[in-house]
Write a structure and sequence with these properties.
Elements (H helix, E strand, L loop, with lengths): L2 H64 L11 E4 L3 E7 L5 E13 L4 E6 L4 E6 L3 E6 L9 H6 L3 E2 L1
Antiparallel strand pairs: 1-3, 1-7, 2-3, 2-6, 3-4, 4-5
Length: 159
């Protein structure tokens, strides 16, 4: 073998080595980056998905602190005995909006704040989502209630 042939064999050997080993290493690096990226995307999606719930829980805790109620007294998932009669504009599950008079009984303190109350329109106990109530007015005082959750919790009893 001449010097030129040896040089050519080294170049070809080097290229084969590069394409065989370097490509495998690069493929592994790309695979690791994809795993890391999918993990980061999952974590971001998880945080984004649970952020509204975390915000709601933080707001509930803040409302309890403002009212002097310990966070340990009322926890996520608790049912709280409430009272009061209210005129509300309510949008039901069929997107029908109507005025109702309700007598509050029980508040489910979870991600979808639900109020169990006697409904004078339907003449029976019903469950209302607080976020679907508008124009809430106290029947007793005629006062417009800006924050129904806060208003109900002022005299609440955990059961």
């Amino acid at each position: 073998m001449t010097g030129g042939e040896i040089f050519l064999a080294l170049i070809i050997g080097g290229l084969i080595f590069y394409f065989f080993f370097a490509t495998k290493a690069e493929e592994e690096r790309v695979r690791e980056l994809k795993v890391q990226q999918s993990r980061e995307e999952y974590e971001l999606a998880f945080r984004t998905e649970h952020e509204p719930l975390n915000t709601l829980i933080d707001t509930m805790k803040q409302n309890l602190r403002l009212m002097g109620v310990s966070e340990r007294e009322i926890r996520y998932g608790d049912q709280i005995q409430v009272s009061g009669s209210f005129r509300v504009t309510y949008t039901d599950a069929h997107y029908q909006t109507n005025a109702r008079v309700i007598d509050a009984k029980l508040l489910d303190y979870d991600s979808n704040l639900k109020l169990h109350a006697y409904c004078h329109l339907r003449h029976e106990e019903r469950t209302f989502y607080v976020d679907k109530m508008r124009d809430v007015t106290s029947v007793e005082t005629g006062e417009l209630i800006e924050d129904l959750e806060h208003h109900l919790l002022e005299n609440a009893k955990r059961i």
